[in-house]
Design a protein that fits this description.
Blueprint: E1 2-4, H1 9-40, H2 44-83, E2 86-88
Helix pairs in contact: 1-2
């Protein structure tokens, strides 16, 4: 078992920001649809808000993911000193392809003369 003692705060923050930004891209069409249906219903304020939120959603999610990732990584580093880190079981695999047969052929029998 390996124990993850600490994580890089900025690396976790960057990955979290990108992940949440991608989630924002997935959620944005929902808000654009809400804005579209608000326009059909005759609500101009609702339509504008829905479209504005739909366009800003990836950025808002990305920024909040970055901030929450940094806070989470910082707290993990503090708490892992106190209670220990995540236990990880790692498996080493060969770098290249694995042959289905032994690479070194078996020794040939010696035939007496």
């Amino acid at each position: 078992m390996h124990v993850l003692k600490s994580v890089g705060v900025m690396s976790v923050a960057k990955i979290s920001g990108l992940l949440y930004g991608c989630i924002g891209v997935l959620v944005a069409p929902l808000f654009l649809l809400i804005g579209f249906f608000g326009t059909l219903a005759g609500r101009q304020n609702g339509a504008f808000s829905g479209v504005l939120l739909g366009l800003l959603m990836p950025f808002l999610y990305g920024i909040s993911g970055f901030i929450m990732g940094a806070i989470s990584a910082f707290l993990y580093n503090l708490l892992s000193d106190w209670v220990g880190g995540f236990e990880l079981e790692l498996e080493l695999r060969p770098a290249g392809p694995v042959a289905p047969y032994p690479i070194v052929p078996p020794a040939t029998p010696v035939i007496p003369a």
